[in-house]
Amino acid sequence: MKIVRDILGKKEQKEIWSVRPESTVFDALMLLKQKEIGALMVMDGKGKVVGIFSERDYARKIILKGKASKDTAVEEIMTPANKMYTVKPDTPIDHCMALITERHIRHIPVFDKDKFVGIVSIGDVMKSVIADREDIIEHLNNYIAGTYM
Predict the structure, then answer these.
(1) CATH architecture observed for domain 4-145
(2) What are the residues whose beta carbons fall under 8 Å from the beta carbon of 143, sequence distance 6 or more?
(3) pLDDT tens digit string along 101-149?
(4) For residues 108 and 106, what is the distance between their CA atoms, to the nearest angstrom?
(5) pLDDT tens digits, residue range 50-93?
(6) Alpha-carbon span 83 to 96, nearest angstrom
C-alpha cells in the first residue's frame, strides 16, 4: 500500500510555495496562477505555518461576499492552521482519499511531527490510486495469459 511519502517523492514540483498572512489576496492569486497550483501555505516571518489559502477560499470568501482581492489580506480568508486537515508522511493513500471525500477538500498539508514537509492534492492522490489500479490490472492480465513471473 502506498503512503503519502511515496507521492511527495514523485512530485515534479518539490518547492513549497507560500505567502505571508498580510499579503493581499490578489498577490496570492497571482502566485497561484504563475505557479499553476491551487493552494498556498500561509507562513509567518519565522517560517511557521499559520494556515492554507486556496482558490476555493477566494471563490467563497471574496467573490461571493463582494470583497475586493486587492484590499483583503490573506489572513482574513485563509483556513487557519488549527482548522486544517493534515496528514503525516506515513499516512496511507486510502486515508487521504477518504479525507478528501468526507471533508470535501482538495489539498492536504503534510507534517512530519511539527515540521511542514509538503502538500498533496486531490490530483496527486488520484494519480497514485489510478497507477495502483493499472499495476493490479497488468499483473492480473499477465497471470491470466500465463506470463506472470
Answers:
(1) Roll (3.10)
(2) none
(3) 999 999 999 999 989 999 999 999 999 888 877 777 887 887 788 776 5
(4) 7
(5) 999 999 999 899 888 888 999 999 999 999 999 999 999 999 99
(6) 17
List of residues 6+ apart from 113 with CB closer than 8 A: none
At 146, the amino acid letter reads: G
Question: How many whole angstroms separate alpha carbon 149 and alpha carbon 142?
Answer: 8
Quick one: cell of 115? Answer: 515540521
DSSP string, the chain: --BHHHHHHH-S--SPPEE-TTSBHHHHHHHHHHHT-SEEEEE-TTS-EEEEEEHHHHIIIIITTT--TTS-BHHHHSEEGGG---B-TT-BHHHHHHHHHHHT-SEEEEEETTEEEEEEEHHHHHHHHHHHHHHHHHHHHHHHHT---
Whole-angstrom Cα distance, residue 4 to residue 115?
A: 15
| Length reported for the chain | 149
Output the nine-digit C-alpha cell for 58: 477566494
